[in-house]
Amino acid sequence: MIWGCFSAAGVGPLVKINGNMDSQMYSDILEQHMLPHAKSIMNRGWVFQHDNDPKHRFTKVQEWFNFKKVKAMPWPSQSPDANPIEHMSNPLKKRTASIRVRNAEEKFALLQKSGPK
């Protein structure tokens, strides 16, 4: 599994996820990857969007958003899956599906190299 982000200003980093992502790992990714990237390319007033995945709603994650003063877009429960990251990940999956790799590291390297088109 990978984590990624994008904005009108460009594509952010891909982060390889080892094991199952929990709220601690998600908070660490936000701190170490998303926030530095957003601060480097975004103007003030940006809003972060994520869906209603349980790890996004944990108190620890909500506290991180409050402490860092990052505004998160409200996401209604039971909403149709209209997550815009899928519009980037699905074409990437299609472009790389036919390329044989031997392990997760090669797959991650392929995904990083292939990037959005």
From TrEMBL:
UniProt-recorded Gene Ontology molecular function terms: nucleic acid binding
Q: Which residues form the Tc1-like transposase DDE domain?
A: 10-104
**Do you know which InterPro entries this protein is assigned to?**
RNaseH_sf, Tc1-like_DDE_dom
Q: Which residues form a coiled coil?
A: none
Pfam families in UniProt = DDE_3
Under what name is this protein listed? Tc1-like transposase DDE domain-containing protein
What organism does the UniProt record list as the source?
Diploscapter pachys
